[in-house]
Amino acid sequence: MRQIVLDTETTGLSAENGDRIIEIGCVELLHRKLTGHNLHHYINPERDSHEDALKVHGISNEFLRDKPRFSQIADELLAYLEGAELIIHNAPFDIGFLNKELELLGRPPITSVVSGVIDSLVMAKEQFPGKRNGLDALCDRLGVDNSGRTLHGALLDAELLADVYINMTRGQDALIMDMDAAEGQGGETLLLDLSRFELPVLLANEQEAQAHEAVLAEIAKASKGRLVWRQAA
To answer: Is residue 21 within 8 Å of 10, Cβ to Cβ?
Structure first.
């Protein structure tokens, strides 16, 4: 499966009110492996960034003056994305901006080109309910090194999100139970998806801990004190 982790930086927050894309970063995953076949463009938005946006991405209006317009990179971008599954953090934001850029060129929406879109923010909220699920918070939680991220940047954020996504979907994705063995009925398999569950850690209460110590004391007496695990401790 070919997947593209995509991120954009923009002049502001509203594509409908005239804000434009100024940077696109794409990272390719093939069968969940980074290929190094990435795509990155700075784009002349033909307008200035809002002051608040400048504080987020730090890309000056002067820097973008000689960069290509979206119309000049659109064919390359669409060819690169064609048939891939997109992975985007807070997908409606980036998809909205991409669709507005394509609309201005008389092109169909981005979803007509790709095979689907995964919103990693929605995925994170399901896996970690009630917790902060911004990119920095997920990097900290999942052990992804984001020390080089002082400002938002489309390619860097896409690279970090690729690592975050792989970590969020790694491990035991499912538990398969053979119902034939359990119930004596043939041909029936129960598939439980565990990837979206955060399993609780249950600690022994005081009474249970005392009962455990009593059992250990009996074992110690019977073995004349030769308890390997206590010697190791």
So the answer is: yes
Can you tell me the distance from the alpha carbon of 48 to that of 180, in angstroms, rounded to the nearest whole number?
A: 65
How far CA 48 is from CA of 19, 21, 67, 151, in Å, comes to: 9, 11, 13, 18
Share above pLDDT 90 across residues of the chain, in percent, rounded to a whole number = 65
Query: What are the b/e assignments for 162-188, b being 16+ CB within 10 Å?
Result: bbbbbebeeeeeeeeeeeeeeeeeeee
Here the tokens at position 147 are 């020390």
4 and 27 Cβ atoms separated by less than 8 Å: yes
Confidence of residue 173 (pLDDT cuts 50, 70, 90): very low
Active site residues: 152
Position of tokens 């290929």?
A: 35
Give the position of tokens 């439980």. 192
Between residues 66 and 189, the one the model is more confident about: 66
Residue 101, Cβ density class (10 Å: 0-12 exposed, 13-18 middle, ≥19 buried): buried
Q: How far apart are CA 22 and CA 4, in angstroms?
A: 19
